[in-house]
Amino acid sequence: MKKLFLFGAVVALAMGFGCAITNYSLITDNDQGGTVNTNGKAYIRQSSQVATTYPDGSDNLMWFVDQNQSGDRVLTTYNFFTTGGSLFKDDLYCSPDKTGCAVVTAQDPENGDADIFDYSWNQNCTGSRSLSLLLSTSRYYGECGRANGDRMQKALSLVSQMTPTTINGKTWLKGVMNSTNTTYILNNHNGASAAFAPAGDVTVLFNGPQRRAQIGMQNPVTRQSLQAVRGWLTSHPGPYVTVNRVVNGVSMSNDMKILTA
Questions:
Q1: How far is CA 5 from CA 11, 53, 130, 197, in A?
Q2: Tell me: the pLDDT tens digits for 194-208?
Q3: How far from each other are the two terminal CA atoms of the chain, in whole angstroms?
Q4: Burial class (CB within 10 angstroms; exposed 0-12, middle 13-18, buried 19+) of 245
Q5: Residue 214 gets which letter from DSSP?
């Protein structure tokens, strides 16, 4: 029985049972030129997830890392609390979204870290009851920052301004793009630029977990807007065009070239 208990304890340790992270490896990326500045908290993808279940619900502790350009990090542990359904944060749509306060906050400088297990524990936060271990670890399976999926979600429309709607048994976020929140800025790299805004309302549906979007083109006024853009591109040719989309203050830019036969 003692051997079984020890084996179970080792398994729990290995899986990150009730762990708060206090020490982490330097985050680097070849495309970033070495050390990565996460520009905020990035979600650390764990090798496995463990939930602790209580009469009122379940705790699932999650880890986040905020690293600056010098490689110094601030590590935080949050709780994914549920009362039904999935007990775990779904990483299919990998984003650093979190709610509530940090159960544990740990300073993790790249150089001169006096104690790899130093931390501040907020026992008033949900998930504090499930904390039993402090963890110093090498880098896991990567991190999820705000450069891709979460930025896409914001750009389509601010989540707080979108309403859930069910289509074919799946939940989508529904919002509207119009001249009050959306602008397209075109540059033909031949001395000409122009700004366009949607005429009328364009309905947008967004599914975060599947990273899918639907843009409604039923409004005839919308088609007129597209015709106006097409006319400008025809009359202002250039080697290629840069399209900068600004939606709710979030800007995304792409270089495009019209395909010709």
A1: 10, 20, 19, 65
A2: 998 888 787 777 766
A3: 75
A4: middle
A5: E
Retrieve residue 150's tokens.
């979460």
Q: Which of 12, 84, 80 is nearest to 48 (CA)?
A: 12
- Can you read off the two tokens belonging to residue 183? 């602008």
Where helices occur in 88-193 by DSSP H, the ranges are: 149-156
- Contacts of 21 by beta carbon, 8 Å cutoff, 6+ apart: 44, 63, 65, 75, 77, 104, 106, 135, 136, 137
Least confident of 33-42, 52-61, 250-259: 250-259
pLDDT at 110 over 60: yes
Residue spans of beta strands (DSSP E) within the chain? 19-23, 28-29, 34-35, 42-44, 52-54, 57-59, 61-67, 73-79, 104-108, 120-121, 133-136, 143-144, 163-167, 170-177, 182-187, 193-196, 202-207, 212-215, 241-247, 250-256
- HSE-CB at 164 with a 13 A cutoff on CA atoms is 5
Distance CA 176, CA 204 (A): 6
Task: Flag the least confident range among 36-50, 104-118, 137-151.
Answer: 137-151
- The pLDDT tens digits for 147-181 are 444 444 444 444 446 778 887 777 787 878 788 88
